[in-house]
Design a protein that fits this description.
alpha+beta; single chain; 5-stranded mixed beta sheet; 2 domains; 5 strands; Heat Shock Protein 90
Length: about 325
């Protein structure tokens, strides 16, 4: 009785498997893998029905088992081979999709940097000389004989133009940092830190073993933007009093370790809703690097970034310094 019950359960299980295989056939547009599995499961069900008939005392020719076994083995073996090819094809498509996404992201970032550089140049070379000319004209006008009220107006206007020139230079430098382009990543980061310290009370400790090394333009620009984003986030949102930043080259790898003593946050929630963390992750991913962040309330945050890179040839180094 137990054998009959087990055979019935086996038949039902194979029928269920056949039904699911039928659904997969329609989903995958009649892929031959699932057709072979349907045939195999159907024949297994027939084989179990024959065994159930024998268990019930019916006379069934035993040659059925031999032929059924051969056909079932062939169908399932070929089906497994095709399934392996299908999975390899899916894995190849996923790799191609990831590569395409990486190329698209890299193209977007390069386009963004080109636009920044163009805007910076237009501001510096276009609007800058106009403001300087206006300042020179006011300076010349101040030498003329004027009453005190007019001199005060000229002095105030000159001050406003000087502030506009300083703001213009700052905006131009933020769009396309000249120190980064001319002297490399370490000097560019140090220059940004010096400006940040001058405007905030938080202490920023920066250590690096980089000197005049130059890297691929994408690597330098993206790491610079990432460091700026991390520092700005800490200064604006964390309420920290100190920031520690380490940038080191270890063989072919650039290692960036960052931490602050701020109020902390939920990294996953911030990835989903803001603070630029998702943007940082996307930028690092475009370089094929890794970005790990940890934080908890009241314990600040830590970030570790690793990017594999190589020093560019002398020709590219010269290009950066022009």
């Amino acid at each position: 009785m137990l054998i009959k019950l087990l055979l019935v359960i086996a038949i039902l299980a194979q029928v269920v498997a056949t039904v699911y295989a039928l659904r997969l056939v329609r989903t995958t547009k009649y892929n031959s893998v699932w057709i072979l599995f349907i045939i195999g499961f159907s024949l297994l069900s027939v084989e179990r029905v024959v065994q159930l008939s024998l268990a019930c005392g019916h006379d069934v020719s035993k040659w059925w088992f031999g032929y059924l076994g051969i056909v079932i083995s062939v169908c399932l073996s070929i089906g497994v081979m095709y399934a392996h090819k299908l999975f390899m094809y899916i894995a190849r498509l996923n790799r191609q999709r990831q590569l395409l996404n990486k190329r698209i992201l890299t193209a977007v970032l390069r386009t963004e940097e080109k636009a920044r550089s163009r805007f910076s140049k237009e501001l510096h070379d276009g609007l800058g000389p106009l403001l300087s000319s206006a300042k020179m004209s006011l300076t010349a006008l101040a030498r003329e004989d004027c009453d005190p009220e007019q001199r005060e107006i000229i002095a105030n206007t000159t001050y406003v133009i000087e502030e506009a020139i300083r703001s213009l230079r700052e905006i131009s430098n933020n769009l396309s940092p000249h120190v980064l382009n001319d002297f490399g990543l370490a000097r560019g980061v140090q220059n940004f830190i010096d400006k940040s310290v001058a405007m905030h009370e938080a202490k920023i400790r920066f250590t690096t073993n980089l000197r005049t090394e130059r890297f691929d333009t994408d690597v330098e620009v993206i790491l610079y933007r990432v460091i700026c984003e991390l520092i700005n986030n800490s200064l604006k949102h964390s309420g920290c009093s100190s920031i520690s930043l380490s940038l080191a080259q270890n063989g072919p790898e650039l290692a960036l370790d960052y931490s602050d003593n701020g109020r902390g946050f939920n990294p996953q929630a911030m990835m989903d809703c803001g603070m630029g963390l998702s943007n940082i992750a996307s930028r690092i991913n475009s370089l094929g690097g890794t970005f790990e962040i940890s934080s908890s309330k009241g314990r600040g945050m830590r970030a570790a970034i690793r990017v594999r890179t190589q020093t560019p040839p002398a020709a590219r180094r010269t290009k950066h310094r022009k």
